[in-house]
Specification:
Elements: H1 2-25, H2 30-52, H3 57-81, H4 87-98, H5 106-141, H6 146-156, H7 158-172, H8 178-204, H9 213-236, H10 241-251, H11 257-266, H12 270-294
């Protein structure tokens, strides 16, 4: 576990810590940094990954199915566990349970813990998590437009188009043109550091935590229950090795800041969501170290 903390978690904390220091020292527009990451650098990483990955189509489909199944089981557990909460708080608990930080937390940790093969798997999960976040998330937290509006959001994301283009080139057997490949490599290399800085900026702007029952329930479900559910679902789906490790690791990530953004946008108890995001991020650090330490023992 000590080596997991030093080799995997500490680099992530240090880079994110730079973001926290910058947020405390300067007035920075976090939304702009997030947009630069989401619309400029992460699509390049997705394109590079899909054109060079060793993940087969069959393995990718199985991984996506296992992740969606794990989130469905986790959502049912969260809904039942939050039975006595008010309607808004109950929906926020479910949202904070299934909307994980598979981007600016999950991608760097997957790379450090599992290497490039793990990063490729993590990107598959990241794309799937975006689908969940922008379709189920708004519908759950009270957005108008329902599933159709969410699907349109996902379809318009550059990372979706980068993924589609990469799959097209790979399917046709066409190599990426040299200058384009070099430009993509430069952008992709900066993607992971930038998402960590973005995470630090968000944490640096966090407000005081409110340790209410919904917050503690959401954090407990996200950081403890969801990884266990993912392990069971992964085994049931026939996953093993890097795919299983990637699924469990992805599901050990804390609640994504987008859970708060969605809750604020649609007026669904944003204070609970904000506290759940911040607390789950801090609580998850030692728990992820434990998960990383036990990954080699998985089948």
């Amino acid at each position: 576990m000590l080596s997991a903390l030093v080799d995997v978690i500490l680099p992530v904390v240090l880079v994110a810590g730079v973001g926290v220091a910058l947020a405390k020292s300067f007035t920075l527009d976090v939304d702009t940094v997030n947009k630069v990451s989401m619309y400029g650098f992460t699509p390049a990483l997705a394109f590079q990954s899909v054109t060079t990955t060793t993940v087969t189509a069959a393995s990718g489909v199985r991984l996506v199915g296992a992740y969606l199944a794990a989130m469905l089981v986790a959502a049912v557990i969260a809904w039942l566990a939050a039975t006595r909460l008010a309607g808004e708080s109950r929906r926020v608990v479910v949202g904070c349970t299934i909307i994980g930080n598979n981007g600016n937390f999950g991608l760097p940790i997957a790379l450090l813990a599992l290497g490039r093969p793990g990063l490729d798997q993590a990107l598959v999960i990241f794309i799937t998590a975006l689908f969940v976040m922008f379709t189920i998330g708004p519908a759950l937290l009270g957005a108008s437009g329902g599933l159709g509006a969410g699907l349109r959001r996902v379809a318009l994301l550059p990372v979706t188009w980068a993924l589609a283009l990469g799959l097209l080139l790979r399917g046709l057997g066409w190599p990426t043109p040299g200058p384009l490949a070099s430009a993509v490599d430069l952008l992709a290399a900066a993607a992971v550091p930038l998402v960590l800085l973005s995470l630090g900026l968000q944490l640096g702007r966090s407000e005081r935590l409110h340790l209410t029952r919904p917050v503690l329930l959401a954090v407990g479900l996200r950081t403890v229950v969801v990884p266990v559910v993912a392990y069971g679902v992964g085994l049931a789906a026939g996953l093993s090795g890097v795919p299983l490790a990637s699924l469990v690791l992805a599901c050990a990530m804390p609640t994504a800041v987008n859970a708060f953004m969605l809750a604020r946008e649609f007026g669904a108890d944003p204070q609970t969501a904000a506290s759940a995001v911040a607390l789950s991020t801090f609580v998850s650090i030692p728990l992820i170290a434990v998960v990383v330490a036990v990954l080699p023992a998985l089948p």
